[in-house]
């Protein structure tokens, strides 16, 4: 965050605090998500791709049905965790004066000297948000990957 917020203006690119926060978190999440997707695609064996080629499937259909769908099914739990971690990691953007839940609680406890109450409320909000994210992703997973259980 510091590199984006303080480094870019040193080379002549001026951006707002919110833009720097979004750009920083996007770069951070993008690196992890790219690695998760790469690992998921590599879990699909070469034999499956060769079998699809032998059956006469085009490279596009092979990638779509033989590689991508099973890979997405395999990486979905890791992606869910990554999105929740990004939501929780957003608290660090308060270091560059972006109003954020933890930063607002810190300001509030500085004014009222009620640290316990301020941070308990923040913890409860993060707990509710995490449970909501987890529930939404569970519904998405059930809707997208119900085909795995259709054969039972």
Break the fold down into its secondary structure elements and pairings.
Layout: H1 2-10, H2 17-42, H3 46-54, H4 59-89, H5 101-112, H6 115-144
Helix pairs in contact: 2-4, 3-4, 4-6, 5-6
Characteristic terms for this protein:
mainly alpha; MetI-like fold; 77% helix; 152 residues; elongated
What does this molecule look like?
There is one protein chain. This protein is mainly α and 152 residues long. The protein has a single domain, classed as Orthogonal Bundle (MetI-like fold). It is 77% helix and 0% strand. The mean pLDDT is 91.
Taken from the alpha-carbon principal axes, the silhouette is elongated
By DSSP (H or I, 4+ residues per run), the number of helices equals 6
Order of helices and strands: HHHHHH
Q: Mean pLDDT across all residues, rounded?
A: 91
Strand content: under 5%
Query: What kind of sheet is the major sheet?
Result: none
Structural class: mainly alpha
| Overall CATH class | Mainly Alpha
Instruction: State the CATH superfamily name.
Output: MetI-like
Q: What is the CATH architecture assignment?
A: Orthogonal Bundle
Number of separate strands: 0
Would you tell me which CATH topology applies?
MetI-like fold
Task: Report helical residue fraction.
Answer: over 70%
Work out the count of structural domains.
1
Separation of the first and last Cα atoms: 49 Å
Radius of gyration over all CA atoms, rounded: 21 Å
| Spans of at least 5 consecutive residues with low confidence | none
């Amino acid at each position: 965050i510091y590199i984006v917020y303080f480094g870019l203006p040193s080379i002549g690119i001026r951006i707002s605090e919110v833009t720097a926060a979004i750009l920083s978190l996007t770069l951070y999440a993008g690196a992890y998500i790219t690695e998760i997707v790469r690992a998921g695609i590599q879990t699909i064996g070469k034999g499956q791709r060769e079998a699809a080629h032998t059956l006469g499937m085009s490279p596009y259909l092979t990638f779509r049905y033989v590689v991508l769908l099973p890979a997405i099914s395999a990486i979905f739990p890791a992606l869910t965790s990554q999105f929740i971690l990004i939501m929780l990691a957003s608290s660090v953007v308060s270091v560059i004066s972006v109003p954020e839940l933890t930063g607002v609680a810190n300001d509030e406890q500085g004014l009222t000297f009620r640290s316990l109450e301020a941070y308990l409320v923040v913890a409860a909000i993060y707990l509710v948000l995490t449970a909501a994210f987890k529930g939404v992703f569970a519904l998405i997973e059930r809707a997208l990957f119900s085909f795995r259980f259709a054969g039972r």
